[in-house]
Amino acid sequence: MTYIDEDFNYYSSRKPSETDDKHESSLIGNAAGMGRSDEYQDPLSKHEFGDEPAEQKNGLARFFANGKYPLEQRIENKKRGIGRQKYPFVVWLLTTIMVAVFIYELVVNGRQQGTPISFKPTVNPMLGPSESALINVGARFPPCMKTVDQVPVTLLLPCMNDTANPPDRTCPISDLCGFGGIADGETPNQWFRFITAIFLHAGIIHIVLNMLAQCIVSAQIEREMGSGGFFIVYFAAGIFGNVLGGNFALVGVPSVGASGAIFGTVAVTWVDLLTHWRYHYKPKTRLVYMTVELIVGIALGFVPYVDNFAHLGGFLMGLLVGTIFYPVICTSRRQRLLMYGIRLAMVPIVIVLYVLLVRNFYTSDPYAACSGCRYLSCIPTNANNHCKG
Asked: Which of UniProt's keywords are assigned here (predicted)?
């Protein structure tokens, strides 16, 4: 089970007796550093979760999964893997939207090239639309978002309906950008691609891998922290991953996928493990598995159309924003104050990172600041001019 069983609430369904007090103290109270069970109180509940029972909350409070539970119950729920809500509504909604958007991508490519999957002029290894089609439907592609001297909007690329090799139908980037195109003399400014790229996927393999991770890892995180906090973490990580990639990845290659957002939710599992170490079963073994999974995920960032900077940026932002919103169990006033201090410190860090990288994207050449950073998401080959194309 990965949710709070509303029918099983031992602490709210019966009044604790003196015998129960002693029994509960011996089992759980010592871990929490507290005495009688009727004196137990979630130290975060008044400040973060409100004073009303969850079932009496209004719709907005339910969305943020607020509720007041005794400290010993929260500890027991954590050990049993029980979260704050039963269903991951946001994950289900996002997954539905992303599958629908991917079907739209295939339809667009099918109308242009005659087949939903691009086989000519080049084969998409992810089994999906052509590069031109991905740009047209909203991939993160810097030339459509700002002036890029190396890749101006007047540069000719294969049209969406081109199937010849070498291409015999070329279109200017200004037309491929779609969304009304970019008029002559107009400065590209399709900033929304930082967001739309999250909902797009490069192919069948790409979306299957991402949706599996989203419906397993991300769904569990939503159950644990509630839909409100999860929503903020998910999009903060996804957008920041695209901002970081826009700064340092190859400017002439489109990037798509929810990987950055998913990596942000993976980062929350690290927040959970490190803050609740003693409540996890075999935490050292879990740490090893999580480390291996992280390494594999970063390795997949070198696949075409997938940006490792989105992975790394999403993970970093997931750690920061996840620390702010994840419901950490504090068993003492000192721990509670320390957690509040850490959360307050995270807020300006998040803001500064966003401001600096967005400003850097629009006002300077990131390659000049970090010429070697591109290799974190690119394997040098002749096809990409050794990560300079």
From this structure: Hydrolase, Membrane, Protease, Serine protease, Transmembrane, Transmembrane helix
